[in-house]
Specification:
2 copies of one chain form a homodimer.
Chain A: H1 2-5, H2 14-21, H3 28-48, H4 52-68, H5 75-82, H6 85-93, E1 131-140, E2 150-155, E3 176-180, E4 186-192, E5 197-198, H7 204-211, E6 217-218, E7 221-227, E8 234-240, E9 259-260, E10 263-264, E11 271-279
Parallel strand pairs in A: 1-11, 8-9
Antiparallel strand pairs in A: 1-4, 2-3, 2-7, 5-6, 7-8, 10-11
Amino acid sequence: MPDRMASSFSASDSSEIFARRLAASGDERLRQALVAAVAHLHTLVRELKPTSLEWRSFISFLTEVGHACDGRRQEWVLLSDLLGASALVEEVNTRRPKLATPNTVHGPFFRADAPELPLGSDISLDGIGERLAVAGRVQDLDGEAIAGAEIMTWQANSAGLYENQQPDLQPEFNLRGTFRTDDEGRFHYLTVRPAGYSVPDDGPVGGLLRKAGLPLRRPAHLHFMIRAAGFETIVTHLYDGSDPHLHEDAIFGVKPELVCHFERAAEKPSWWLDFTFVMARSKQGAQS
Amino acid sequence: MPDRMASSFSASDSSEIFARRLAASGDERLRQALVAAVAHLHTLVRELKPTSLEWRSFISFLTEVGHACDGRRQEWVLLSDLLGASALVEEVNTRRPKLATPNTVHGPFFRADAPELPLGSDISLDGIGERLAVAGRVQDLDGEAIAGAEIMTWQANSAGLYENQQPDLQPEFNLRGTFRTDDEGRFHYLTVRPAGYSVPDDGPVGGLLRKAGLPLRRPAHLHFMIRAAGFETIVTHLYDGSDPHLHEDAIFGVKPELVCHFERAAEKPSWWLDFTFVMARSKQGAQS
């Protein structure tokens, strides 16, 4: 009986049978994503031939990753980052002109609610670490200043830890802030020099990838999200060019044009950094 | 600087860069699985070119699936089942002789702790539904009885619901039981005829796949896990051949040799079913 057979799929035609069932779907993009994802998933199963026990281990891993997520921890973002998927999503989406500042991955430590501060503020609320003065300019591709651009910054402390990893040890919003560029497109603030760090390896994602021998270090960096009406939002990092792990960033986020050299100052603050962010106009006013 | 460039991967060589980082790993199977999975994941990203917003939606979906899992609900197994992955894992693993009973997917409703009962027991603890008498025999490929084989069965009720979906409405362990075959390899028990059902569509997995137009019905069936020392464990279904959804089982679990015809009895119980399970010897004593 042919229609009885239709639901009994064999290893060779399984993804075609899946795709056929979706044909009537109304959401074309969802259908396209599911068909492509299932084709790869089935090919992977055929290639790897996981035993039932291995598949159950995989399900257990997903379950543990799910349970590791809470309001302060996003283990799925970490997995996406460490497998290079987040960097690749940025890569296939960013079609900016060569001179515009490129995007990198967002990372799991962003908080949207960091307070807006006056220019010149010190975002190190505990004052621990080597002092760093950050100044910068936001401009368009023609070099024209972008006034009133919103600069959100977040970073690890001098021990390589973000405040939302240490809610009991660091002050809330330590090393985070939101600024606005002045009429010349400039901004500046005080902070401390961040340390590089290992990505969290106390959860299921870090545990698995450590076991696989994957480097879990991130070179020292500052995070920035820069928004201005009519321009593509920049979500990027600035890297400390002296960090020994620059060539093996755990989340594949280093791009040569984002590597900076912190300059030693003759007097306090000890270090300074000046960087120019270049924004590309958004297509049809939409922000990415 | 070449080693600075090494961590900045482009869309075309991203999975090779990932694979190279894993080369020193000690766990060869894990390395193989990660390299293959990441190659497919990166190809999928290159093919679909998800926007950042779409990728965040995907991360949100994973997060919701994770949060939908608890002690009674395994949403990851459901996802694996509905994408055909679970059926395919069984398919690539089961290399049984043609006459042995094939495996199907395990499904999310199994409980390992169902009580052991004397042969002839009634596993319908609320007595609701059309009565069904199940009898069977467990034998090897030569037709020799397997005495003392463990039969675990579980099924939905006459409304298509398992007791662990309705902890407040059905008695604990309703329509579940563990039996042992007698000296002739036979077993029998009383139950009710199960109804087909829709897989749970109130969680993120069912919600997404319903939106994609995927059939979410499972034809009526009984579940069995059969274990005996020296034989490969059978985990399988017996299907009601009269079910109109037999050709579009949501989890791709129907195989022609597992389709049964419940016979109408002249007197009570109203229906009966007799099925012979054929076990293959395990390789080197290992159970799958």
